[in-house]
Amino acid sequence: MSSKVSDSAEKKRSAADGEQDIRKDDDDYYTQPGLLFRLMSAEQQKVLFANTARSIADATKEIKLRHIGNCRKADPAYGKGVADALGIPLSEVPK
User: Fold this and answer.
1) 52 contacts 60 by C-beta, under 8 angstroms
2) Taking a C-beta distance cutoff of 8 angstroms, is the pair 75, 38 a contact?
3) Among residues 36, 46, 49, 62, which is most buried (max CB within 10 A)?
């Protein structure tokens, strides 16, 4: 059996046993969304803010604040736009 096959089989067994398959180098969750946000036109960004606000309108305030914080980590303007669309002051968002 090749190493790739046995590694894959081991991962499946580990996942079945309740272990998570987490890559050690998978710790950057904000660069790619920030890059995508900055590629958008101002109009596309406005649509994103409005869609996001509509999509999470029924979520708890804690979830909204967490999402705004994650957006802000991707790009400060992204976080501000979502916060504004939700009517939540950035001063309420934990850093």
Assistant:
1) no
2) yes
3) 49
What tens digit of pLDDT does each residue of 27-42 get?
Answer: 889 999 999 999 999 9
Distance CA 42, CA 59 (A): 26
What six digits make up the tokens of 4? Answer: 């790739």
Residue whose structure tokens are 């509509």: 54
Question: Tokens in use for 62?
Answer: 């804690």
Query: Domain residues of the chain, as ranges?
Result: 32-95
H-assigned helices in 2-60: 3-16, 31-39, 42-55
| pLDDT at res. 95 | 85
Measured CA to CA, the distance from residue 9 to residue 2 in angstroms comes to: 11
pLDDT of residue 26: 76
Cα dihedral across residues 66, 69, 74, 76: positive or negative: positive
